[in-house]
Amino acid sequence: MVTSSDATEVPLLIEMTGISKDFPGVHALADSHFELRPGEIHALVGENGAGKSTLMKILAGVYRKDSGRVVVRGTDVDIPNPSAARRLGIRLRRTSSSAASRNACAASSSTTES
Q1: Please, are residues 92 and 56 in contact by the beta-carbon 8 Å criterion?
Q2: SS3 (DSSP) at 9
Q3: How many whole angstroms separate alpha carbon 70 and alpha carbon 61?
Q4: Most buried of 5, 10, 20, 33 (most Cβ within 10 A)?
Q5: What residues have CB less than 8 Å from 84, skipping those under 6 apart?
Q6: Ranges of H-type helices in the chain
Q7: Is the dihedral of CA 63, 37, 49, 66 positive or negative?
Q8: What is the pLDDT of residue 7?
Q9: Tell me: the pLDDT tens digits for 89-113?
Q10: pTM of this prediction?
Q11: Using alpha carbons only, what angle is made at residue 48 by residues 46 and 49, rounded to the nearest 5 degrees?
Q12: pLDDT confidence tier of residue 3, bands split at 50, 70 and 90
């Protein structure tokens, strides 16, 4: 079992900091943060319009961030498209098996080195 103190010693696979994204007439994300360590699975759950899908689409290369930083395995990266995300080992899985998880978006990253 990994405790919270143990988790801080494990290097991050993905770190997103200060991520912001605007669409015409909509401020979708402001200074958002996300971290992923080996073996973790995250579920982002929230109201419609909270920015969870936008954050994951930035990680997946579907959208470009307006500001912020994405670090994968300790290296600053630009993820301009889904192919670039896949080359970095980033895959997204959308879940929708129940009403409670309808708005959940799970992200995981491969732990194999490129």
Answers
A1: yes
A2: coil
A3: 11
A4: 20
A5: 61, 77, 78
A6: 4-7, 52-59, 82-87
A7: negative
A8: 59
A9: 998 776 665 544 444 444 444 444 4
A10: 0.75
A11: 105
A12: low
